[in-house]
Amino acid sequence: MKVVNLKQAILQAWKERWSDYQWAINMKKFFPKGATWDILNLAANARPSWEVIHLLFHPFPDVENVFLCYNISPSLLEALLEQAMIGPSPNPLILSYLKYAISSQMVSYSTVLTAISKFDDFSRDLCVQSLLEIMDMFCDRLSCHGKAEECIGLCRALMSALNWLLRCAAFYTEKFKEMLDQVAAENQLKMCLERLEKILDSMKNRALIHIAKLEETSSWSTVEQSLVKLGENLNNLSSPQLRSQADECISLIKSIPTMLSAHSDQLNKTGFPTIHAVVLLEGTMNLTGETQPLVEQLMMVKRMQRIPSPLFVLEIWKACFVGLIESPEGTEELKWTAFTFLKIPQVLVKLKKYPQGEKDFTEDVNCAFEFLLKLTPLLDKADQRCNCDCTSLLLQECSKQGLLSETNMTNLTAKRTADREHAPRLKSAENANIQPNPGLILRAEPTVTNILKTMDADHSKSPEGLLGVLGHMLSGKSLDLLLAAAAATGKLKSFARKFIKLNEFTKHISGEGSKAASVRALLFDISFLMLCHVAQTYGSEVILSESSPTGEVPFFETWMQTCMPEEGKILNPDHPCFRPDSTKVESLVALLNNSSEMKLVQMKWHEACLSISAAILEILNAWENGVLTFESIQITDNIKGKVCSMAVCAVAWLVAHVRMLGLDEREKSLQMIRQLATPLYSENTLQFYNERSSLSLPCSVVIMSSILEHMCADVLQQTATQIKFPSTGMDTIPYWNLLPPKKPIKEVLTGVFTKVLEKGWVDSRSIHIFDTLLHMGGVYWFCNNLVKELLKETRKEHTLRAVELLYSVFCLDMQQLTLTLLGHILPNLLTDSSKWHMLMDPPGKALAKLSVWCALSSYSSHNRGQASARQKKRHREDIEDYISLFPLDDTQPSKLMRLLSSNEEDANILSSPTDRSMSSSLSASQLHTVSMRDPLNRVLANLFLLISSILGAKTAGTHTQFVQWFMEECVDCLEQGSRGSILQFMPFTMVSELVKVSTMSSPKIVLAITDLSLPLGRRVAAKAIAAL
Fold first, then answer.
1. Is pLDDT above 50 for 1?
2. Which GO terms describe its biological process (predicted)?
3. How far apart are CA 667 and CA 83, in angstroms?
4. Which DSSP state fits 975?
5. Backbone φ and ψ of 923, nearest 5°
6. Residue 300 burial by CB count (10 A; 0-12/13-18/19+): exposed, middle or buried?
7. Which of 118, 220, 352, 565 has the fewest CB atoms in 10 Å of its CB?
8. CA distances (Å), origin 871, targets 289, 561, 779
9. Closest to 533 (Cα-Cα) out of 525, 449, 338, 333
10. DSSP state for residue 798 in the 8-state scheme
11. How many CB atoms lie within 10 A of CB 432?
């Protein structure tokens, strides 16, 4: 019956010429309470028919026909608009009804825009003008405070209106071809472009269109087609002002899909200590790491700090030159040289593949070198250290890798050559004794490939030839050069596998003569020493292989894991590995007590190495019980006189044994270590080496001494024992024993951090001290104390520098430090009101920045499984069990989750029938089914729940301000689209709380913090933006 009354009212209005407000008052009688005219479809799901409207507005309507047709009429607004536009000019009375309805908000903006976009007879200029005037009423203040579905409807309607305006503009630009009434066409086009500008100038409108584009990709394709058509017709315009206006509108529309990815680079800085420290850390502690994780980490820092590409590349080179200059002489210097000349060019090749904007990456590299050439003192110092023109060698390498054009390389080389004419030089005598390491490293790289090919051959066919190759590798510093080149090019693991295979080959004995047995002994000994050296220099993880199909673990791997002392590794001297068959031990003791030459044939060297520990224990027990005197113990000299590997295995067991003894029980064991570590200076040289002139005995002894020194370092420090190892003229254990004695480690930590902050950059020595302190104090202690130091800073420039430096220090173990920071330290600061004063600006803002940087880096690398080997091997005894802290079973949420989820009065439920009901903890990560069994995911989810509760709380303070800074930094650091980012853990209900904060009430921020890949995310964003 209401339908009939409604139509009778329209009829009566037409007959009696009601004014707009009379009509509105009378129409409200037929409305359901609280409804708008949008929903008054005279028949649900009806096919549109305009017959009713023609009847209603006919001077003498047939009321009976109205009653017959009521079930097929469209929405009232569309019907009225259609009727208003039925002639060549609009009906002013009907238009007045519509305008009144819009002004009094009895119809939604989306319904009006949708109705307008259905009008397509652009030849009726007066009708088009009227529609544009209607749009003028609200296009700069669009809003919707209804349900989420209504807000999405507004997005769709706005995109339809945008397309309609583009079609309209294209129609009038085409009319310029006809040359008939150009003035009228120009006026109409001007009106269209003004409305387009009015819509597009609003960030809010562009954000709503962005959501509509993701919601309906097909409709966006139509917009793009209309854009193309308009662009093609712009040449018809004679007015430069109109053309400029149209170009501006087209540019704004094209920017909508990428509106979240536009970040301006930071142009007010020239130094970036984070990049410097990340490169130094990698070169000092992770030469063997893959290049991709480093590339990803560098790109993450570049993105977060918005560093311009030329300055980004420049900072990488600066760090490399500083590393070269300050690296200790010996192995570390070779490692740095390989890192700079072999690994970094490969890193830049991978960086080249990333989108760098409009500028070509080779131009950025060229620009970076131009800047670098101005740092003459730095380059001169590096040249002096390396005794060569480092810059020219680098330029050649970059040119080979396609990072520099031939012209640019020649130009840059010429500039550096001219600068070097005035550089300080070493005296000629000193020059003659220094071989340039960069040249040696660059030559070593192809040699590594050749050696790998040689090692692939069948060892049984030419063991003598293989021995010759090993002899050359042992001479001088060849081994360290080759290992450094292999490490920098990612071939060290292959290198180690070849020597494992060679070591295994020596197990096989089949009817050998004395000569073959001698060769086999040498191959075992050299391969064993080389593998020990690799493990100590580059980390034992380089040696470890994937599990073989047969399940058999090579001898050296077994020995290394169970018997070889390493920093922080606890060995069990009673391990079954140290307790072989007693008959083998007795025969070995008898053999070693005999000073005559050892029988070579059928000797199983791997068994001898495993049995030596038990043999040493027998001798030690006999000595301690008075059965033997120290003078009568010949075994140590005999062990040294046979093969180096046996001495290494003996010392390895003694080191493990000493650690288990009391202070007063260690003397005899330490005396045996001293005996074994002291080289023989008599004619009784190693039995098998003196037969081989091609093999350098001193080199083997030096390598063995270096291995023993590394093994004993911890025990000697703990027992204050001194052993004089053979001098090689360089520090064999660089960065060892850096902590000052009798000084609390907290004082050391604060002191080093203060010095680093004053300098503005982290040096290699400081990195090693931080690493030692992290290892000693544990992750929580380390993180907590450094955060306290950050919160003490009160000057803005100091806090920003501290954040950059702390982030780089946290790269020592980013995953665990992030878990501690986000899972323990931040929640403690945010929930304890007595600590809120510490979160004031600037230190609080700096901590928010650090937290976001760590969270983004950890989550990014964690998703790609890129924890470095350095981080994987760190001990975790001090890390709390995050699985018990944040329970695994998602049906049993943590206490924090339960508390927040029960706070229903703060829950902002989207009450659309198409939306799923939301609890206050529902987030995009749950819809993406991200595993909450992962500690990092769990910590992030709980942190965002805590942030959500702070935003919804009735009290505000510095902790609320901290949350705002945290979210602002998240938005600043984000790439376009937040799927897979840390913001997916943010509850959807938090969006409506965030927009209440003045600085967060921006459409762009709402787009950035919601997951627009999800329908629910788009509805949440639309609802929040439409209400702004």
1. no
2. positive regulation of transcription initiation by RNA polymerase II
3. 109
4. P
5. -135, 170
6. middle
7. 118
8. 11, 18, 12
9. 525
10. H
11. 10
CA distance 971 to 1008: 6
The Cα-based distances of 431 to 40, 219, 324, 393 in angstroms read 94, 73, 18, 18
Res 173: pLDDT? 86
- DSSP structure class, residue 923: B
Query: CA-to-CA distance for 213 and 718, rounded, in angstroms?
Result: 67
pLDDT in tens, 502-517: 888 887 776 667 777 7
Q: Token pair of 673, please? A: 């270590």
Secondary structure class of 75 (helix, strand, coil): strand
The amino acid occupying position 346 is Q
**What phi and psi values does residue 708 have, to the nearest 5 degrees?**
-65, -40
Whether 272 and 315 have beta carbons less than 8 Å apart is answered as yes
The token duo for 658 is 């000493």
- Compute CA 374 distance to the chain's CA centroid, rounded to the nearest angstrom: 32
Please, which residues bridge with residue 542 across strands? none
Question: Which residues is 923 bridged to in the sheet?
Answer: 987
Tokens representing 158? 């706005």
CB atoms near residue 53 (< 10 Å): 22
Residue-wise over 421-430: b if at least 16 C-beta within 10 A, else e? Answer: eeeeeeeeee
Write out the two tokens for 853. 């940087």
CA angle (900 as vertex; 880, 1003 as ends), nearest 5:
105
Whether the bond into 842 is cis, omega within 30 of 0: yes
pLDDT tens digits, one per residue of 779-793: 999 999 999 999 998
Query: Among candidates 541, 720, 578, 589, which has minimal Cα distance to 656?
Result: 578
The answer to whether residues 882 and 819 touch, using CB atoms and an 8 Å cutoff, is: yes
Q: Hey, what are 725's tokens?
A: 């190892």
| CA atoms of 645 and 710, how far apart (whole Å) | 15
d(CA 645, CA 639): 9
Residue for token pair 């897979």 = 980
The answer to whether 830 and 848 are in contact (CB under 8 A) is no
Both structure tokens of 202: 């609003």
Q: DSSP string of 716-763?
A: HHHHT----PPP-SS-SSTT-S-SPTT--HHHHHHHHHHHHHHHTS--
How many residues would you count in the chain? Answer: 1028
Q: How far apart are CA 1027 and CA 893, in angstroms?
A: 32
**How far apart are the C-alpha atoms of 341 and 487, rounded to whole Å?**
12
**DSSP-assigned letter for residue 261:** T
Q: Confirm if 158 and 113 have CB atoms less than 8 A apart.
A: yes
d(CA 97, CA 189): 27
- Rounded to the nearest angstrom, the gap between the alpha carbon of residue 41 and the centroid of all alpha carbons in its chain is 53
- In whole angstroms, what is the distance from residue 216 CA to residue 219 CA? 6
pLDDT tens digits along 442-482: 988 898 888 888 887 776 677 777 887 787 787 778 888 99
Per-residue pLDDT tens digits for 475-503: 778 888 999 999 999 999 988 888 888 88
The alpha helices in 201-290, defined as continuous H runs, are 203-215, 217-233, 240-255, 273-285
